[in-house]
Amino acid sequence: MRNFCGALFFLFHFSSIQAQSFINPEAGEKLAFINHLIRIDAYEDAIYMINQMDSNCTAEFDDTLHYLKAWAFYHLQELDSSSFYFDRVSPQSSQYYKSVFFSTYDRAYKGDFETGISKLSALSLKDSNLLRLQNFELAGYSLLKRDFQNFETYAKKFDYRFYANASEEKKMNDHYKNLLEYKKKSPFVAGALSALVPGLGKIYAGRIGEGFSAFFVIGSLGLVTFENWRKDGLLDPKTLFFGSILTTYYIGNIWGSVFSVKIEQQEFNDAVNQYILFDLHIPLRNVFN
Amino acid sequence: MQLISTYCLIFIFLCGTYSTESYGQEASAFHKADSLLQSGKFRDAGLEYEYIVFRDSSWIVKNRALMGKAEALKQMGSFDKAQRSLERINFEVMDDSLQFIVRMQTALCAYLAGNFKDAESQLLQIDYYLGDSIYYKKSLPMRILVFNELRDYANAQRCVMEFSNLMVQHHPGTEEINNEFELLYSRRNVPKIKKPETAQLLSTFVPGLGQLYAGYPGEAVLSGLFTAGSLAMAGVAFYFKYWITGYFVGLGLFQKFYFGGQTRVKYLAEKRNYVNCNEFNNKVKMLILDKYKLFEEISF
Q1: Which residue in the set A33, A223, A228 is minimally distant from B54, CB to CB?
Q2: Is there a contact between A231 and B242 if contact means CB atoms under 8 Å apart?
Q3: pLDDT confidence bin for B24, thresholds 50/70/90
Q4: CA end-to-end span of chain A, whole Å?
């Protein structure tokens, strides 16, 4: 009896699959063709084909179209469009988990952390490897948000055993240490130091070469102005000329030192964020490709 | 543009012949794609051809479809993609005459896409895989254009003389063609390539001389004036015992103009080469296109 029911179930399931593809064989073949276009890197053509296709009124078909479109936009690095279509893949689709992970990544790359993270956190996964990946990705996004408390919570669950993200977990810890050890500099202090000794504020900000260059230029202008003042007096045209150039450079150097602190900080953050995003991306490609 | 349309006509004609002769039953599969191509809907035509490539397992059919796709992409101006489509073709199922056409088309697309090394590679493959001298002669115009773009004027001149001799041989009374090409490729006309390193070396010894060598006399004079002027300024300052002013301002400016001039002169030499070679290549292109109709009439 059990065997008969099993056979009946199998026959029903098999025939329903066949019935789905026979409902609209042309659409099925077009989907296969779109997959072929993506395989040969013809992403614009794949999107063009998808746009020309009518919806087949089944949710599964729509999910496939949305997923393929999102995947094509992802390869074209149009991440806004990519995340939009990844979000339209329903939980019933076999590509749902991949869509959520990549949608969250796309949004994080554009600087939008909250929308994707909440969806990723809400995923209820049973597969242990996907759980590891989810934990790792959430840790990375916490670092991007500079939410160190949350990062530490997720980092405690790193086990460095999953091939897809073992080395990236170590790198994420390194990024965390770099961020903790980074000392923020004060623009006021940089300006005051440059007022005292031209170029010192820039060296304080971390721009050593610029600091020495500024010191040399302003120093030499100062000496030239002093020489002309000593020989020809304060009101001599040459003294006034070199003096005004010196003043311009001196004030400019103080102003530049104040901004260089902010610029240096921005560059550091951008560089760390790029490394974090890169290390977040590799496990996604390892697991889902 | 004339060259493109000329090659396109040959291509379409021979592709049509190839398709109807080799696989009549597949002709209907191409009917939709060919109609779209003829009606100017190139993007849709390209997709239809790619669909045939995807669907069919026969390489004869795939090759025909890839040629059609390349044609559609070429009409859209996507020469790089057209080249990539043609490079997917399987030559094992092709006879020599069709292989020649495909390789010539690939070379043309590569040339139009600015990939001159790829174009040269296709021409070398014609020599290697299709040893018949007829194919070499038929490809002479393309060789001339490609060698010119690669600044290989010695080989370009050799091909030009073969081209013009062929024309005179088959069209008696057209001996002036030889004179035209000889004049074009005379020592006076062929661009002399300026070496950036030589220009820089000349500017090291005499500021401004490198700019003169590169063919920019105005900049040469300016560079010389500024460099000499700043050195003179330093000298005058030292004479009047303004030691610091002379050193930092005079010699500082001299250093900027001197080394800046050397960096600038390398760019100027490259620019001169680009301008001269472009001008010469355009003259050659016009002459080749002008004589191409006569070349087409030759039966090899």
Answers
A1: A33
A2: yes
A3: low
A4: 42
